[in-house]
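Task 17 of the worksheet. Students: predict the tertiary structure of the chain below and write it out as structure tokens. Keep your answer in the requested format; marks are given for formatting as well as content.
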Amino acid sequence: MKPKYMQIYNEIKNRIANGIYLDNNQQLPNELKLCDEFGCSRMTIKKALDMLVMDGIIYRKKGKGSFVLPKGSFSSKVNVQEGRILGLTGNAKGKVTSKIIDFQLKFADQKISEKLDIKLNDPVYDIVRLRLVDGVPYVLEHTYMGTALIPGLNTDILSKSIYDYIENTLNFKIAGSLRITRADCSNEQDQKYLNLTEKEPVLEVEQVAYLDTGVPFEYSFSRHRYDRFEFLSHSVRRS
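Model answer:
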């Protein structure tokens, strides 16, 4: 089950998307009312609202409350928010599914061992997945994870969300990531699985993701369709 703040975040986000809380600067119920409705602490409500602010879905006025931003903030693209690591399942607005292209064990080479902070030739999962949103291909992911730290991965888990497995089954907390985003020409594999032509580019995200202990658990390359991916940075000027 998702954490309480994530449930509240998703519920408020759905209400805004479905017009229950209209856009055009409508004010949301205050935090105390939301605490009563959802039966939780103010800290939990604040965490959910902070995520909505980071998504560019709501904004706050000091001393006045939280307000809904115009629907122009919503997009059919996948928003990868600065400072957050949710994976495609946490970022996409539609139903996310996965198609396993390749799944095998290999021995870590020099680069993988350095990125994952493991020994040379330690066993790692070598995973290639096509990620789809509402049946439409969005991302081709190539991921490496150490088998000692993340045990028990199988095709059933890979067909769903690895991050959910890590947090809800292994009970680890994912803390953050270091990302490099770059444009690249599409290769044959991109063209095959992402339905691209030879002239169409991809956006590649190279990422090392960390647990809250500071230990890296994932080294990955995500090849995104250029027209279904955007990086969203939301800044607030403090008075």
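Marker's comment: The CA atoms of residues 154 and 168 lie 16 Å apart. DSSP finds eight helices and ten strands in the chain.
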